[in-house]
C-alpha cells in the first residue's frame, strides 16, 4: 500500500463553505462554492467527500437567488412608477412656468393689466410649447383667457391638488 491509498477521504472545504454560505443567505457564493466543490470531489476519485453538503449548499443558494429576484421585480416596478410620477410633475411645472413667463412678458410689452384679455396669437411661447399639449401625466390644462393677478397661474393642471401636486410650490410672485 502506498501512503496515498492509506489516507482517509477528507471533506471538501468548499463543500462546507457552500453549505455554510447557503444557510447564511449568501446565494451566489454558495452556488459558486458548490459547483467548484462538486467538480473537485468528482476529480478526486474518492479522496474528497462532502457531495451531500455541496448539493445542499447549491440548492439553498439557487433558491435564495430566485427569492431575491422575485422580491426585486416588484421593487423595480415601484421605483419606475415613482420616477415617472416625479418626472411628470417636474415637466408639468416647467410647462406652467414657461406659459406664465410668456404671458408676463406679453403683459409688460403691451402695457396690459391683470384682467385684460389675452391675445394668444401675440404671446410668444418657448419652442416646443403649445397651448393644446396635455399634462405629461395626462389630462388637458385649463388656460385662462385673461391676464391673471400676480401669484395666480394662467395655466391650471387637472393634477394640481394632492396627491400629484402639479402646482409650483411657491408662485406668489409669478
Ligand atoms: Zn400636470
From TrEMBL:
Domain of life the protein comes from: Bacteria
Keyword terms of this UniProt record: Membrane, Transmembrane, Transmembrane helix
Annotated TM spans: 12-38, 58-79
Domain DUF4190: 14-71
Protein name: DUF4190 domain-containing protein
Species annotation: Luteolibacter ambystomatis
